[in-house]
Specification:
CATH class of chain B: Mainly Alpha
Number of strands of chain B: 0
Cofactor (chain A): Cu cation; ferriheme a
Protein name (chain A): Quinol oxidase subunit 1
Shape of chain B: elongated
Radius of gyration of chain B: 19 Å
Distance between the termini of chain B: 55 Å
Function (chain A): Catalyzes quinol oxidation with the concomitant reduction of oxygen to water.
Structural class of chain A: mainly alpha
CATH architecture of chain B: Up-down Bundle
Order of helices and strands of chain A: HHHHHHHHHHHHHHHHHHEHHEH
InterPro entries (chain A): Cyt_c_oxase-like_su1_dom, Cyt_c_oxase-like_su1_sf, Cyt_C_Oxase_1, QoxB
Family (chain A): Belongs to the heme-copper respiratory oxidase family.
Shape of chain A: globular
Largest interface: A-B, 50 and 43 residues
Oligomer: heterodimer
Largest sheet of chain B: none
CATH architecture of the largest domain in chain A: Up-down Bundle
Chain lengths: ~650, ~200
């Protein structure tokens, strides 16, 4: 392979990308060296097994990915603003919509939510860490290396261009030769390991590590949604693992699963992909529902209306999510009977979802609402998401779907559910729990600016797309006809509004870091209802000095009434904690290079690093590190200073 | 994370962290079931799509597959005996039964490799047709699991020799026991739905 085949050449935009990557990397290396921060980085972050720090790293990476996916989106909107634009050519446009979709779903939405789960779930149930802290670190590094592998494709080897769904035969070796599609396969495979491990980890954590006497039906609703999401992860991700592996065998080893020769079945990919893909959209929306429920309860200052109905609605949605995948390809021609079955199961999902909408409205009803930024995101979510949901039911009607299929109507629909659902929840949850993570609040005034820019920009961007879709504009076209121009220009303006909202949000983080008042109490909003607010801020690394017995929902409300804390000096005992370890990052680093070898089909490299990865697993097997104990005196010292006693 | 240790009951369940590991492994096996179910479904969908390669009926022979089945079923039994001895605190018997399990597993694997090479000589490879891709992937994934299992048992035997029976080593053996039985169950499905059906249809 020549060097000019290895690096992507001939695109000014990509040269710009290369230069900025090089500059940022040099700047980071320089800063770390100049301020002598390498040791700090290694000890405090790269080797940590603390769920709170891992969560922070997840969220920071997800914000970076949101930036990358957002830049992709704005480039597409520029290209689509006018007919016959020459900003991106067809090939480059295809690559960008592929990476936009993949990055946003796999490397932005999921890690952002998993980051919030990492930090908040153990705190909400009164646990001192995850069930498997080592595995948690492994999960994070698998995600990060998978994301990096996918992201370097645009400067090395070329990006995938077959859409985030990668339908065969288009994505097969015959029609998409070269490393591009392999980056998709290996990037997702590598990060999928971590997602599955996180699912198992969270399930065991929630089932086995709750505070004494906390019953399942006393768990905070975010923890409930996390538990059920973990179930979906565990039962959906292996399907993706297999689908990716089969396509890898097809592309690299000449197998015939999805080919047009050898009697392969291209449509089987679509089935396997969506058997994972549909549960996947619930993986990113159920935790969002959980976040909104927490935020709404806190700032409506009421107990959640219909807690049990809410839990059962989540369980029902999770079950149904596995039974609707065919609605992604009604037009494939499976016949009236099959389409009817999946049409009905699809529309059934609207029922439990409707229940949840009424739960939130019922909670808000006659409450004294505190209008914080976190609450504004939650309030904006309800009507926006309903628009997305109702158009979803329209798409669910198989016969009507023949009209909507593959148009901007669909694009508008899924952005209405994913942005108004997941992205609003990420912002809401981050603002809400920010003081718990970083010890200071985000500035509310700047936060409101970013909120209004983003929400108005969002509606301006996507609402017109319903209509341009009904006018017949198909998705994934790189240029438009003059008739579609007015609505597309509006849409592009909206996209830049969202971009401005994001920029203001980032500014808000930097501004608040300098100027926000440092938190003195653990209950930052004064209205905390669940156990995470019972810990002091900043949260001690062991989370809870003592664990209170829980006998009600909204545990912290009761603790406050009774004047109890999570620091009862007479009940202190030494706390067992795990040691930091560098193994996870090294193991996943090896697997990163093994995957990179497979992407370019350099078998010597793939095999060598796979063996290195296996050796790291052997090292782990022989590792009998049992952690250490934090002594009572030290706990007392830490708690007293944290609580200002 | 609690470090309290129970004084009675099976060693592998005495500490909370070991209980959690075992539960986590059960959940992992749940994910493995989905993984194999997807491979079985793929196989079923692609059944008969042999294009112009040899159909399975002409290649599958009852003899060798039956021997493989007995080898693996017996290994599951000896693995059960190993865990039984572990519960009785007999580290030496645990080691011996595990070594027998290992030998049976390795023999199974040898037969499978022989079988794959034989099919390849007859012109049925991963690349021949959709059917054979599905066959080799399903059987091969099972074979890969057996291979990893063998490597894993060897590591645990070394740890047993070094450390004896502790809550942690017991838990590790218990977990690999679960894994080994799981592979046996998967093989029963492969034997019936791949080989038996492949021989007659």
């Amino acid at each position: 392979m020549q060097l000019d085949e290895f690096f992507v050449t001939g695109e000014p935009l990509i040269y710009g990308g290369m230069v900025s990557i090089a500059l940022v990397t040099i700047a980071i290396l320089f800063i770390l060296t100049y301020f002598k921060k390498w040791g700090w980085l290694w000890r405090e972050w790269l080797t940590t097994v603390d769920h709170k720090k891992i969560g922070v790293m997840y969220i920071l990476s997800a914000l970076a990915m949101l930036f990358r996916g957002g830049v992709d989106a704005m480039m597409m909107r520029v290209q689509l603003a006018f007919p016959n634009m020459n900003f991106l050519n067809a090939q480059h446009y295809d690559e960008i919509f592929t990476t936009h979709g993949t990055v946003m779903i796999i490397f932005m939405a999921m890690p952002f939510l998993i980051g919030l789960m990492n930090i908040i779930v153990p705190l909400q149930i009164g646990a001192r860490d995850f069930a498997f802290p080592y595995l948690n670190a492994l999960s994070f590094w698998s995600f990060l290396f998978g994301a990096m592998l996918f992201n370097i494709s645009f400067v090395i080897g070329g990006s995938p261009d077959a859409g985030w769904t990668s339908y065969t035969p288009l994505a097969g070796a015959a029609m998409s030769p070269g490393p591009g599609q392999n980056f998709y396969l290996m990037g997702l495979q590598l990060s999928g390991i971590g997602t599955l491990a996180t699912g198992i980890n969270l399930m065991v954590t929630i089932l086995k590590m709750r505070a004494p006497k906390m019953k399942m039906f006393q768990m905070p609703i975010f923890t409930w949604s996390t538990l059920i999401t973990s179930f979906i992860i565990v039962f959906a991700f292996p399907i993706l693992t297999v689908a990716l592996a089969l396509m890898t065998l097809d592309r690299i080893f000449g197998a015939q699963f999805f080919t047009l020769t050898g009697e392969g079945m291209p449509m089987m990919w679509a089935n396997l992909f969506w058997m994972w893909g549909h549960p996947e959209v619930y993986i990113v929306i159920l935790p969002a529902f959980g976040i909104f429920s927490e935020v709404i309860c806190t700032f409506a200052r009421k107990q959640l209306f219909g807690y049990k109905a809410m839990v059962w609605a989540i369980i029902l949605i999770a079950g149904l999510s596995f039974l609707v995948w065919v609605h992604h390809f009604f037009t494939m021609g499976a016949g009236a009977f099959v389409n009817s079955v999946f049409s009905i199961s699809t529309m059934l999902i609207a029922v439990p979802t409707g229940v949840k909408i009424f739960n939130w409205l019922g909670t808000l009803y006659k409450s004294k609402i505190k209008n914080t930024v976190a609450m504004m995101w939650a309030l904006a979510f309800i009507p926006s998401f309903v628009i997305g949901g109702v158009t979803g039911v329209m798409l669910g009607m198989a016969s009507a779907d023949y009209q909507f299929h593959n148009t901007y109507f669909l694009v508008a629909h899924f952005h209405y559910v994913l942005i108004a659902g997941t992205v609003f929840a990420c912002f809401s949850g981050l603002v809400f729990w920010y003081p718990k993570m970083f010890g200071h609040k985000l500035n509310e005034r700047i936060g409101k600016w970013s909120f209004w820019f983003f929400v108005i920009g969002f509606h301006v961007c996507f609402f017109p797309q319903y209509f341009v879709g009904l006018d017949g504009m198909p998705r994934r076209v790189f240029t438009i006809i003059p008739e579609w121009m007015p609505l597309n220009i509006i849409s592009t303006i909206g996209a830049f509004g969202m971009g401005a909202g994001f920029a203001i949000f980032v500014f808000c983080i930097l501004y608040s870091y300098r100027y926000s008042e440092r938190e003195k109490s653990g209950d930052s909003w004064g209205d905390g209802r669940t156990l995470e607010w019972a810990t002091p801020t900043p949260v001690p690394f062991y989370n809870f000095a003592t664990l209170p017995e829980i006998d009600s929902q909204d545990a912290y409300v009761k603790l406050k009434e009774e004047g109890r804390t999570t620091f009862e000096e007479d009940k202190l005992e030494p706390i067992h904690m795990p040691n930091n370890t560098g193994q996870p990052i090294i193991m996943m680093g090896f697997l990163f290079f093994a995957s990179f070898g497979l992407v370019f089909e350099w078998m010597w490299m793939a095999i060598a690093f796979l063996i290195a990865g296996l050796i790291m697993m052997v090292v782990r097997s022989f590792d009998y590190d049992e952690g250490y104990h934090v002594e009572v005196d030290e706990i007392k010292r830490i708690e007293r200073s944290a609580r200002g006693l | 994370m609690s470090s309290h240790e129970l004084k009675t009951g099976p060693l592998e369940y005495r500490r909370q962290e070991d209980q959690m590991t075992i539960l986590g492994f059960w959940i992992f096996l749940g994910a493995e079931i989905v993984l194999f179910a997807t491979l079985f479904a793929t196989y079923a969908v692609l059944f008969g799509r042999t294009a112009d390669s040899t159909p399975p009926m002409e290649l599958f022979e009852p003899g060798i597959v039956l021997i493989m089945t007995f080898l693996l079923l017996t290994s599951s039994f000896t693995c059960g005996l190993a865990i039984h001895e572990m519960r009785r605190g007999n580290a030496k018997a645990l080691r011996n039964w595990m070594i027998i399990t290992l030998i049976l597993g390795a023999t199974f694997l040898g037969f499978e490799i022989y079988e794959f090479i034989h099919y390849a000589h007859e012109g049925a490879t991963m690349q021949s047709s959709a059917y054979w891709s599905a066959f080799f992937t399903l059987a091969g994934t099972h074979g890969l699991h057996v291979t990893l299992g063998i490597g894993w048992v060897i590591l645990l035997l070394i740890q047993l020799a070094k450390r004896g029976l502790t809550p942690k080593t017991s838990r590790k053996f218990f977990v690999i026991g679960l894994y080994w039985h799981f592979l046996d169950v998967v093989w029963i499905f492969i034997f019936t739905s791949v080989y038996l059906i492949g021989m007659v249809v």
